[in-house]
Amino acid sequence: MFLPCRLFFQAPSASVLLGRRRGRMQYQTRPGGARGFFTVPPGSPLFFQDGMMDWLTSLTPIPYPDALARMEARAWAIRESGAAQALWFLEHPPLYTQGTSARPEDLLWPERFPVYAAGRGGQYTYHGPGQRVVYVMMDLERRGRDVRRFVHDLETWLQEALARLGVAAEPRADRVGLWVRHPNGGEDKIAALGIRVRRWVSFHGIALNVAPDLEHFQGIVPCGIQEHGVTSLRALGLDIPMADADAALARAFTAVFGETLTPVAGEP
Predict the structure, then answer these.
(1) pLDDT tens for each residue of 172-189
(2) Where is the active site (predicted)?
(3) I need a labelling partner for 64 at 20 to 30 A (CA). Which of 31, 72, 75, 160 fits?
(4) How far apart are CA 249 and CA 232, in angstroms?
C-alpha cells in the first residue's frame, strides 16, 4: 500500500535515523525527542528500480538543517532498505555553508546570514533564493565505486544543462565548479558542486546560479577563490524561469547518467 511510503516522507524533518527493527525504520527527533517507527514495504514507489530515479521538487525554501536531515535519511534508506535513488530540487533561505576544507578567514561577514557546517567537501558557499540547489542521492556501488568519475559526471551534467540554456561554461582542472569566460579574459563561477559519500551513497550535490542576489556572496570568499568572481544566468542577460532551468537540468542528467527521472510528490 502507498500509506507507509507517505509515512516515510512525513517523518519529522529534523530527525535522525537510528536503525531498523523487525523490518521497520526507527527515527528520533532532535534533540532528545520522541522516537517513532515507519515502514516502507518492498514494491512501494520509494523502492529502487533499475534505471529510474525519483525527481523531487520543493516549492518553498527549505531550512538547511531540515534539508541535511532529510538527505541523510534518504541516503541511509538507499543503502539499508533499497530506497530509490533521488534528485531533490530546492532553494534555501539565505545562508552560508561551511565545507570540510573551509578556512576561518574566508568567512568575511559571519553575522550576516546563518552559517552551517555542511559535512561536504569544499569551502564556504552561499545558498539563497534564485539559486537552484539539487541534492544528488545515488548508489555509487552501481557506478563502479568511482568517486572521481562521479564528480566528473556531475561537472559534465552542469556543462550540458548550461549549454541547453545557451551558456558556454567549462570545468577547470585546478578548481571545482563551472566557469564562464568574460570579454576581459577573466572567469566567473556560475555553478558549484560539493558532495559527500557515505557507504557508497552520495548526498549534497550542485548549485546553479539562476537569479540569486550576487551581492550576498560578498560575505564570504566563495570556495576559497579570491581571484575570480561569481555570476548567474540573469547577470549574463538571460531571464530564465526556474522551471526552464529545472527542465534543462533534468534532460541533461538523463543524457549524462542514463537514468530516467520520475517526478514524485513530497520530499526525501
Answers:
(1) 988 889 999 987 778 999
(2) 223
(3) 160
(4) 15
Q: Which residue has the higher pLDDT, 117 or 183?
A: 117
Q: Which triple of cell numbers denotes residue 107?
A: 568567512
Quote the CA–CA distance of 139 and 130 in Å, as a whole number. Answer: 29
Residue 185 assigned to a binding site: no
**Active-site residue, from 73, 84, 201, 223:** 223
Q: Which amino acid is at 256?
A: V
Q: What's the chain's length in residues? A: 268
Q: Does 193 count as an annotated binding residue? A: yes
Q: Where are the alpha helices (DSSP H) in 26-120?
A: 64-81
The tens digit of pLDDT for each residue in 179-216 reads: 999 877 789 999 999 999 999 999 999 999 999 999 99
Residue 223 known to be catalytic: yes
194 known ligand binder: yes
pTM of the entire structure? Answer: 0.80
What is the distance between the terminal CA atoms of the chain, rounded to a whole angstrom?
Answer: 18
* Spatial contact of 215 and 173, defined as CB atoms under 8 Å apart: no
pLDDT value of position 7:
25
Arithmetic mean of pLDDT, 100-129: 88
- Could you give the domains of the chain? 1-47 (no CATH), 50-263 (3.30.930.10)
Assess contact for 121 and 100: CB atoms under 8 A.
yes
Q: Locate the DSSP E strands across the chain.
A: 15-21, 24-29, 35-38, 52-57, 86-90, 95-98, 115-117, 124-127, 131-137, 170-172, 175-181, 187-198, 201-209, 229-230, 260-263
Q: How confident is the model at residue 15 (pLDDT cuts 50, 70, 90)?
A: very low
How many C-beta neighbours within 10 Å does residue 3 have?
9
Q: What is the mean pLDDT of the chain?
A: 82
32 marked as part of a ligand binding site: no
